[in-house]
Amino acid sequence: MNRTTSVSWPLRILCFLIALWLVGPMFIVIPLSFTGQASFTFPPQSWSLDYYRNFFTDPAWTDALWTSVRLGVAVTIAATIIGTAAAIALVRGRMRGKTVVTGALMAPMLLPQIIVALAIYIAFLRLGLVGTYTGFFLAHTALAIPFVLVPVMASLRTLDPDVEHAAAGLGASPASVLWHITARLAAPGILSGAVFAFATSFDEVVISIYLQSPLLRTLPVQMYTSVTTNTDPTIAAASAIILTVTTLLILVPQLVSGRVVKD
After folding, report:
1. What three-state secondary structure class fits 205?
2. Given this model, what pLDDT does residue 260 score?
3. What distance in Å separates the CA atoms of residue 253 and residue 257, rounded to the nearest whole number?
4. Euclidean distance between CA atoms 33 and 241, whole angstroms
5. Residue 240's CATH number
């Protein structure tokens, strides 16, 4: 046995244990979502779909789900457009103060979330945006932009600028170069950013708690409220749905990137 093999096996075991630790909660939450009992007991003594039925029929849960989906789609569109435009300007543009601009755009990701939440709450309270859909949209968009900026900038830095210059030299307009060359070559990064933007908005709870109202709350806030007031296993069904959606969203860019590389 050579040294490389002897080192790789402990590393593989360590990676497996870390992966098991990260995904371990899924093996508890998902079975609990199918329990037929009125409280959390693992492993479940009986099986039922009652709590999934309750999730999709209770107005408190369905309204929160619809709010999160609607907000997530709007935030994804806005954050992807803004983040992609900012990434192109920072990577391809010639401007002063790029470091300052990049730091400002990345601040919501780098600062502790509770500080960001308090700052947004104080500012929005003065503007009358607390408890409004507009307030949620602006806050979630600001939080999601860095998650678009990072993968798009990474994609743009791997592209050869000579391709864009060649297209421009052959008579393509700046808009055509941007759409047909830059955007298409950076598509995997843009798609990854869009997915992360949706997941960020869909899973956000700290800022959403500050911005909620009795008539407007997102699914994570509804889950937080449910787990702090009662032991209704419906929250397990909601958690299983979020885990499934998030996992599928993460797999989409990987599949698209693989197809792009093959093509």
Report:
1. coil
2. 47
3. 6
4. 9
5. 1.10.3720.10
The answer to whether 112 and 201 have CB atoms below 8 angstroms apart is no
Domain-located, residue 173: yes
Identify whether 31 is part of a domain. Answer: no
Using DSSP's 3-state secondary structure scheme, residue 179 falls into: helix
pTM of the model: 0.79
Residue 143 forms part of a structural domain: yes
Q: Is 216 in a helix, a strand, or coil?
A: strand
Burial of 189 (0-12, 13-18, 19+ CB in 10 A): buried
Structural domain contains residue 39: no
Boundaries of domain holding 180 = 58-262
Residues 226-258 have pLDDT tens digits of: 777 767 778 888 888 888 877 777 776 666 555
What confidence tens digit (pLDDT) does each residue in 53-102 have? 888 888 888 888 899 999 999 999 999 999 988 888 888 777 777 788 88
Please state the domain count of the chain. Answer: 1
